[in-house]
Amino acid sequence: MGSVSGMLRALASGSKHLAIKRFTLRYPEQKLKFVGDGYQFDPKDGVGIVGYRGRHILYHDKCTGCQLCSIACEGIAEAISMVKVDKQYKQNKKGIMPQIDYGKCVFCGLCVDACPFYALFMTDDYELAAYTKEHLIYTPDQLAVKPKYQGTYEIKIDELGAYHDE
Ligand code: SF4
Ligand code: SF4
């Protein structure tokens, strides 16, 4: 039964692209604007919520320093290291939070799935190019910053994938 529904989903996903107009953007003059949040996971219900898998966002007031995100990444890319933060949070006695190296991250989202405290999600931020490897390492403070830019070409994402309306 599962394989039949999987085949139907694959067919629906593939056939949708027959009706979608192809488009090419002249980046960086023309930029994408993703509609909705990035990829999230609801640990209570055990479901992933569809969204773009761009740069992460870390909510300091929720992170407990449990390291589960780092452990989840160990077998994938070893992109997360736990580092000390200056500010003290009552839910985080060790005072440690994840730091992510985007030179290693493969944007799989497993660290988001592993976080039981709704502290780590992904955002629509896809502009991560840097001149040095060091600049690809995002500290907990950098991960707490919400993406600022907004493109003009709207891209929507649903369970069948990304699409453009126009
Ligand atoms: S999204 Fe990146 S940081 Fe998170 S588990 Fe995957 S590779 Fe590691
Ligand atoms: S982001 Fe989530 S999984 Fe990672 S240390 Fe903080 S609370 Fe734990």
From TrEMBL:
Keywords: 4Fe-4S, Iron, Iron-sulfur, Metal-binding, Oxidoreductase, Repeat. The keyword Iron applies. One of its GO terms (molecular function) is 4 iron, 4 sulfur cluster binding. It is an enzyme of class 1 (oxidoreductase). One of its GO terms (biological process) is aerobic respiration. One of its GO terms (cellular component) is membrane. Its EC number is 1.6.5.11. Residues 54-85, 96-125 form the 4Fe-4S ferredoxin-type domain. The keyword Isomerase does not apply. It comes from the Archaea. This is NADH-quinone oxidoreductase subunit I. It comes from Candidatus Nitrosocaldus cavascurensis.
